[in-house]
Structure formats: C-alpha cells, structure tokens
Design a protein that fits this description.
- There is one protein chain.
- This protein is α/β, with parallel strands linked by helices.
- The protein has a domain of 222 residues: Rossmann fold (3-Layer(aba) Sandwich), CATH 3.40.50.
- A 9-stranded mixed sheet has the order 3-2-4-5-1-8-9-10-11, with helices on both faces.
- The longest helix has 29 residues.
- It starts with 53 loop residues before the first helix and ends in a 24-residue tail after the last strand.
- 28% of the residues are buried.
Length: 414
C-alpha cells in the first residue's frame, strides 16, 4: 500500500561506489536567455499601415499628455459666486441652496437691519430709597408715552407699585407692574409663597417679553415704526431676592433637602450642599439673569436689573466698612453692558459740620461697554422738609446715559 509522497521517490543504494551508480538521463539543453521573449520576425508591408497627418499626430500627443481639468469656484469681492464658476461647477452649492439649520440662522441675521438705538443691559445697585426704581420708571419721553411705549416692571419688593402710585399716575397705563410671587392658597405653610412656582412665573414673564420683542422688531422692520403698545423697557427689580429664590429652589427641588423654604434654611442643610452642587443655583439664576434678559436686550429692549448692596467681610468674619458690593450672583458683574451705582448723600453745613436735613440721591455710570465716555455723577432728587424735588436721569431715555438737561453732581456743593 502506498504512502503517497514517497511512492514517487527513487531510492539510492548508498553501499555501492558512486561511480558504479546509474547516471540519470542527460538534461535537455535550455535555450539561450538572449533568445527568450523575442517575437518571431515577420515581414511588414509599410503600405498597409494607416496614414496619419502631422496635425493628427500632434493632436494625439496632446490628448496623451492632457491633465485632468479642475476648476475652482471664482469668488467675487462681494462674496458671491461668479456665473462662469456656476456654469463650470454645476454641483457646487450656492447660498440659496443651503438647507441646514445653521444656514437659516445666518440668513435671518443677514436680513435684519442694523438697530439704530442704543443697547442697554444695565445693573443698578445702591442704597435703599435711593431712586433706583424711580429713575427707570421715569425713562419714557412724552412722545413714547403717546405712541404706547411700555415699561414692564417685575417688582420683588413693591418698589415699582409704590413709585407708580406716588409719582407716575399720569402714565399709569404705560407702566405694567407685575408681582413675581405665587402665594400658597388655602393651605397651612411655613412660608406664604411657593418658591418653585414663583421661579417658573418669573421665567414665564421673561419668555413672553422675548416673544414680544421678536414680534415688534419684525413689525418695525416691515412698517418703519413700532406697534402700539410696544415694550421699550424691562425692569427686573430685585436680583438679590431672585438669588435667594434660586438657592431655595435648588435645596428643595434639585437636592431634596426639605419641603419648604424654612425647612432648608440654616447650617444643617447648608453643610449638606457639596461644592459642585452650587451649579444648580447658578444655572437657575442665569436662566433669567442674565441669559434670559440678554436675548431680549439684543432686540432693542432696554433691560435694567436692580439690586441692593451687601457687606464684605475679611477672613476673620469682620465686616469691612465701605467695601459693600452688589448683592448678585458672585462673579457675574461682567454680564452687564452698563453698571450704575446709586447713593444718597446728606448735606452738611460747611461751617458747623452739622446735617442740614437735606439729602441728595445720585447715580453714577461706572461702566459702559457701548461708549468710551466716562460717567459723571447725576443728581436724581433732593429730599428736604419742604417736599423735595425730583430731577431724574434723562440720559436713560435713549440709552446714551448723557443728556444736556441732567444735573451733574459737580454743580452742587454738598
């Protein structure tokens, strides 16, 4: 029985002398390598070849050496594509052919005209009863009042309602004052209002303000004038109260530390808040201030945020006199285009140094990104035993913060 491979192997007897072994048949002579690959010679009749002219040979040479054609789109100085390029590159998308969401956003931005007015996104901070709310509610001109301009006042501390009733009854229809609070009705509670519902109510107001701003901007571009009524100014009166609401909602809703504002107050719950959990408060705060208002201000509505001052402390917990700062979200001062400080100054007798009973309210523009002009101290009012006088800040009416009729603090000796 064969084993396959070894069946074809011829065994050699190695016990014999090699000269006695049978020699294998001689190998057939191989052809020379010089003859390999040569075609057999055949006679060629030159008359049988096709005749080609010199011009034809030149054209064939050009076709063999021709490089593939690639035409780039020609761009004009104005950014539009040349009609020649459009004909050569038929599949190249033109601006009108873009279908992405981003192209639609850019298209809307291109179609909007440049806003002629001043952009206002201002923070007003200062002492209580210093005229912060009054200066905003007094920022409508007679012409704007007649055309239906409105100021929407989100009133956290009732300053807007009292100022409207006491000093602006003549334009009460133009001042829309709204309470942000949602009270808890027919229920026993440690706090009188619902923090979470109040938070949502504020966002609802601001969302509608943006909706109104979009509508009236489109109306203005189509008709060249504002509709009636229209939103000119938003006054968010109480950033310090808003910060407290956002922090309380964070503890109740986001972290589940208690069921009410009182239950989540104090050191016991505060120590349970991790370092990174404070992001909940920051994101809720910025949903309204300043992100929510910024987009409305971008459409030409004047936006003012009012807050009080809070003391600063050293590392030992001692209050630093004269170092008060605005009571807002820490490190958010840069979110505003303008910042105005409001103070009250008591008049002193120059000879005796005794207070005369006269108090001045002043406003100073300390920052303004829309102008390189330095701010000056403006006298808002004079309070005295005879009833005093309101001067206002007329430079706020057009958002330039400068007006020839404003009374400068440098003109009055206090």
């Amino acid at each position: 029985m064969g084993t396959g491979f070894f069946d074809s192997v011829k065994l050699i007897d190695t016990s014999k002398d090699p000269s006695e072994m049978v020699k294998s048949a001689p190998v057939e002579a191989l052809p020379s390598t010089s003859d390999v690959g040569k075609a057999p010679k055949t006679a060629i009749n030159p008359n049988s070849l096709p005749k080609v002219s010199a011009e034809g040979m030149l054209e064939q040479t050009k076709n063999l050496n021709r490089k593939p054609e690639f035409t780039r789109p020609v761009v004009k100085d104005d950014g539009g594509f040349d009609t020649v390029a459009k004909a050569v590159v038929k599949d190249f998308p033109l601006p009108s052919q873009f279908k992405s969401i981003g192209s639609k956003i850019v298209g809307v931005a291109r179609s909007q005209s440049v806003w002629d007015g001043n952009y206002v996104m201002a923070l007003i901070s200062g002492d209580p009863k210093g005229g912060k709310s009054g200066m905003v509610l007094d920022s409508l001109t007679e012409e704007e009042i007649a055309k239906g301009a409105e100021i929407w006042h989100i009133d956290f501390d009732m300053g807007g309602e009292t100022t409207k009733a006491a000093h602006h009854r003549d334009k009460a229809k133009n001042l829309v004052v709204m309470s942000p609070y949602v009270l808890i009705k027919n229920a026993q509670s440690e706090t009188p209002f619902d923090f979470h519902a109040t938070y949502q109510r504020v966002l609802d107001i601001l969302n509608h303000a943006y909706e109104q701003a979009v509508y009236q901007r489109q109306y203005f571009e189509k008709n060249g004038e504002m509709p009636s009524p229209y939103l000119k100014t938003i006054c968010f009166d109480g950033a310090d109260q808003w910060l407290n609401i956002c922090g309380t909602v964070m503890k109740i809703v986001d972290l589940g530390l208690g069921d009410s504002g009182v239950a989540v107050t104090g050191q016991k719950t505060t120590t349970k808040i991790g370092r990174f959990n404070w992001e909940f408060r920051k994101n809720r705060y910025r949903a309204a201030l300043t992100t929510g208002l910024q987009e409305t201000a971008r459409l030409g509505v004047h936006c003012y945020v009012i807050t009080h001052m809070k003391p600063s402390y050293d590392r030992n917990g001692n209050e630093i006199l004269g170092a008060d700062v605005p009571d807002i979200l820490p490190r958010s001062e840069g979110d505003y285009q303008q910042r105005i400080n409001v103070t009250t100054v008591d008049e002193m007798d120059s000879k005796t140094g005794v207070k005369t009973g006269v108090t001045y309210g002043t406003a100073t523009l300390v920052e303004n990104r829309t102008s390189l002009r330095s701010g000056e101290e403006i006298i808002l009012f004079r309070r005295d035993a005879e009833g005093g006088q309101w001067f206002g800040y007329k430079g706020m009416r057009d958002g330039s913060f400068q007006h020839s009729q404003d009374i400068l603090g440098s003109t009055i000796s206090v």
